[in-house]
Input
Amino acid sequence: MIGFILKRFFQSFIVMFLVAMLAFTMFNFLGDPVNQMVGIDTSAADREALRDRLGLNDPLYAQFARFIGNALQFEFGQSYQHKRAVSGLILDRLPATLELSLISAIFTLAVGVPMGVHTGLHRNSLVSKIFMTVSLVGVSLPTFLIGILLIFIFSVQLQWLPSFGRGEVVDLGFWSTGLLTATGWKAIIMPAVTLGLFQMTLIMRLVRSEMLEVLRSDYIKFARARGLPSRAINFGHALKNTLVPVITIAGLQLGSLIAFAIITETVFQWPGMGLMFLQAIQVVDIPIMAAYLMLIAFFFVMINLIVDMLYYVVDPRLRVDSTN
Amino acid sequence: MTLLKIDDLKVEFPGRLDTFVAVENIHLELEPGEIYGLVGESGAGKSTIGNAVIDLLEPPGRVAEGHIALDGSAIENLPYEKMRAIRGRRIGMIFQDPLTSLNPLYTVEDQLVETIQTHLDLNEVEATARAIELLDQVGIPEPEVRVKHYPHQFSGGMRQRVVIALALCGEPELIVADEPTTALDVSIQAQILDLIRSLCKQRQVGMVIITHDMGVIADITDNVAVMYRGKIVEKGPTTKILSAPEHPYTKSLISAVPRADLRLDRFPMVNYIEGPEPERSDFDVSTHWLGQAQNFGKSTDGTLVRVESLTMKFVTERSIFPSRRKLFTAVDNVSFEIRDGETFGLVGESGSGKSTVARSIAGLYRPVAGSIHFAGGELTAIKDEKELRPYRQQMQMIFQDPFSSLNSRMRVLDIVAEPIRFHKLASSRAEVVEIVEDLLEHVGLGRAAAKRFPHEFSGGQRQRISIARALATRPRFLICDEPTSALDVSIQAQILNLLKDLQDELGLTMLFISHDLPVIRQMCDRVAVMRNGKICEIAETEQLFEAPGHDYTRHLLELMPKLENLSREGLQVADDEAARHSQ
Output
């Protein structure tokens, strides 16, 4: 078990290293950073001085080592556009994105899993058929369209929910949260639903097919033959056995919720990292792009690590050490 | 009082167009402490009766007519909750496959305690104590420790004991056991049958045991009902049915059972079930393409295959440090020879390494040490895949599972033609088609089979396709890895007859792997007994069965279900034939 976790850590480091290399390459080969920073009338000598100060004349490996060293200290240099430290910018934006992703993930699981269980157990009921149809809509409509539709219905027509922004935000010093105010909650509903709808239908369909599979298995039949109550069979025996694939997918989905919140954030003008990233691309603000790349990779790697460890908690067959 | 009384039972599965009647006219009576056998081949409806008794018929199946009475009160078509109170509490059930009947995510204790608390009014501590007691009763050593373990930490036989303990949790009066020992090795099977017998007698539990295995019937049951296509064709005391069967189906079934006590020329009278043995083409193989094999590496000393100190290891735990890697030695220093034209048997229990030996010879595994010689060439010394091809062409393999060994997306024509095309054994497309159709006809499938897909065939027919595919390279050497263990006995008898006939016609040499000693006796000239990767004994088949030299061989022979009183009606006994010839 410990050996396995160490191995995974090692693999995570390799992944992060490769991503760092990619981000670093972007710095060096996507245009000249000095040109991005200075005006046209800067003299060649000044440029050279700046180049020297930024360490751009050092050998490549030294620059890369410095980049890694800085990244480890969460230091990604100055944003060209905002003229501020990138780390500060990200820290400002991070809570918004993480809160949105978290609420969206909770929505996904809290709605998707029970729907999946229901449709798995009662395959031919009317409710199941409605769920399946709705889920088809969820899969086939693009995110931005759902967002715009929701805005049209709930903001424009009914005027129940705000169409953009985070609402009132409480600053806790290290974290600014919208989850402590009523307007914050109101503001997060539509983006979270928009972001999670696709994932929810995916989880629902996954749980459903896994449930159908498990319910056919011998141990469920044996549990029935032992006269166990239906509740214990469906939720104790069957649902737990569907969890391993669901955890895998849910983990990956959480990662993509964070990474691909971009579209939702744009539609709802949500002040998160995705929106910032989109703006950074428009003006080729490479430090922000590099930092975003590193951060998202870090999230994915961490989530996968946690998912791998969760397998051990759920499935005793993987705990090799205890077999002997 | 009769424990279980089934009266004129009819179970049907309504379909959209017509209703499939699974069983009908079933009458059974079972007393407490009695073991009642239901025997028949797949599709006979024996499991349907078991499922009907415990009301677990797969939807849309239902009891259409008749009555099932437990201790005098009717239990058919009860509401779900009423039936649930009977399941486990009054009727227990044991399933075939111990590897899949236990929930892998819960400890044995969790599953036992949950079941006990469902049925008996006990608190957690009492239930746990009861669970340990049950494990002890089913013969699991150190029950206090083992109860905390997960199912995957038990071996197959031990898991089946856990399954039995679970069935006993509610102290039922009746147990339905559906093929309880089919997935187990003979030695484990004997232990489990002993356990079942003693539990039934001690607790006066009635048991319905469903099986396709005449050995189990003969070993354990008091009464037996023989089922065929949803009906009981014959029933009565076990000894009477086995020694003096009256119905032609029963006779046919008994004559298809491979005998451990005598060697037959062919299996007779297996026609009742699958229809007559299919017509086979009677062209002269010596002039046909199939008989015109090149005289590839004709050996002078009469040895076709020589295996020398073969050793095969698998890594069970990886590590970057070679010293910390854990290796499992599947085959340990095995040597034997297979003579030209003989059938060499490899017998052993699961995990003994017999399939690994076969796969090493076929080149699917590269051995860690030792050498394999075939038709004069040392296969283990040839590194170049192209140089190996002529040898590979000469040896072909037939696998155990007829369902997964054929590509379901390919037509039979392409399945059988693939080796011909690969080895460029025919000059034109038309010739390939012609050869394939001849082959299919020759294995008894008919020429039209070429256009169909594998799923259109039954298990026995698919095994015939496998055989046709194996013959398509005109091999001299066939490796048969448990070719009939997934089949019913009557179909097994037909396939074994086919293999014998082909061997006679084409002069094939065979390596025949089986865990089933009676089958080995029918098929093989010489036998090697394997255990834990080593060969215990190599002997002529008759000598092995009559005068085994090794303790383990003797042990295996003792474990074979005793079938002494089987009817010998209509058998062609090889010894008798030989006796007649010598006169």
Q: What stands out?
A: The two ends of chain A are 13 Å apart (CA to CA). Chain A has two domains: 2-72, 88-323. Residues 2-72 of chain A form one domain. The longest helix of chain A spans residues 86-121.
